[in-house]
Sequence to fold (108 residues):
Amino acid sequence: MPAIHLDEMSFRKLIKTSQSQPILVDFWAPWCGPCRALSPVIDILSDLYRDKAVVAKVNLDEVSPELAVELDVSSIPTVKVFKNGQEVESLTGAYPQSKYQQILEDNL
Fold:
């Protein structure tokens, strides 16, 4: 199951309305090589955590630059985990799948 793709409005709504389930969001752009390399990992995580967490992607080329500034995304790929409306983890760069799984497990 591929990760869900969010625009700025759906991202804000998801973060605001989510309760206890962690939300992992991959901030990426199509021109970014490491982002493209990370994409299959994000989709695998979406499948593995289908009933436990929300796994999503935000294409930074399709949202306002203010969102990146607000979330302190200065380099991509950046993966952030939110819980109860708050950011709880942030990783910049591409990491092995196990690193993202550990973060999700820690926030379940």
Remarks:
- The chain has one domain: 4-102.
- The longest helix spans residues 33-48.
- The longest strand covers residues 86-92.
- Helices lie at 8-17, 33-48, 65-70, 97-106.
